[in-house]
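FW: tagging you since you asked about this chain on Friday. Here's the raw sequence from the shared folder, copied in full. Didn't touch anything.
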Amino acid sequence: MTLGRINTYNPKHKGSFPISRSKIDLFLECPRCFYLDRRVGIQRPPQFPYTLNSAVDILLKKEFDIHRAKNTQHPLMKKYGIAAVPFSNNNLNEWRENFVGIRHTHKPTNLIIFGAVDDIWINREQELMVVDYKSTSINENITTLNKAWHDGYKRQLEVYQWLLKQNNYKVSKTGFFVYCNGKKDSAAFDGKLEFDLTIIPYIGDDTWIEKTLIDIKKCLDSIVPPKPRDDCRYCYYVDKIEHMAPPNLSMQ
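HL: got it, structure written out here
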């Protein structure tokens, strides 16, 4: 198997360098893993693709696109009293595309920040509202974002809000998570998976992004990688590998 070449950062190169929304989150999770990824070209082992989640995303987009074309509210929006409709824009397909997304060159760092949104709605005040689709299957009603891993979801939405602002759009502080929870209490499968759908509003705060981008640039420009994080399982694994004694390969 041949691995593809990774686009790594070169401090001597004067051009702009792309940083995705997910790489910003990687930096916040572990600066050393981020450095090895973006500067050295050593990525964490990839996760298995969430193909069922992707299928749910695609179907939701198709469903909301029907109402986008008609400039009407989706029934879920009516149910939750959201005075908005799906936003129609010629750039939306590009904004949704992975590795393309909404883009902005951050002048202080010359980093190109980008991220692919799931959906955008527009309210009566003509403000854009960022929407993210999430799918899972747990035995509880999902009404709040109070788990530890939800912090990453919130940052994700805030980066999208920030990107739209940088592209001179009027953006609402309120975004939404459309949460699809797979039901397990059906009498039979019958080749069909049913979901409970809920909408969770979230008021974003993107004030952390500017400082984070400055810190990312400092990290990339450093000739010394950050120290391993004690709570990073990947750093722990690499540390253990580096300190292992080489096996005795002599034939006796």
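FW: The beta strands are 17-20, 84-86, 102-106, 111-115, 119-123, 128-136, 174-182, 195-203.
HL: agreed, and Residues 51-70 form the longest helix (20 residues).
FW: great, closing this out.
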